[in-house]
Amino acid sequence: MELDPTRPAWSQIAAEVERRIRSGSYPPRSRLPGAVPLSNEFGVVPSTAAKAMSDLKRRGLVTASPGWGTFVADPLPSPPPP
Description:
The model has no long low-confidence stretch (mean pLDDT 96). The chain has three helices and two strands. Helix 1 packs across helix 3 and helix 2 crosses helix 3 (46-58). 44% of the residues lie in helices and 10% in strands. The chain has helices at 9-23, 35-42, 46-58, and strands spanning 62-65, 69-72. Strands 1-2 form a two-stranded antiparallel sheet. The protein is mainly alpha-helical. It is globular and about 35 Å long. A hairpin with a 3-residue loop joins strand 1 (62-65) and strand 2 (69-72).
């Protein structure tokens, strides 16, 4: 995925990870890639990827377990209305 330079990178990464979660590419309770692998995939610094994951956590899509990683929430919250 190529990032749009007119939008914040962290929000685009969060949207892509959410798309993968909702499509089943990352099923409930599965461990997600960390900030470094995500930053490598999207060509950003790790802090940008970490901010994306923080946003997903704030919205209840993922849970973080210190020392273990970040996991897809189970159950998933409903998507926001269009």
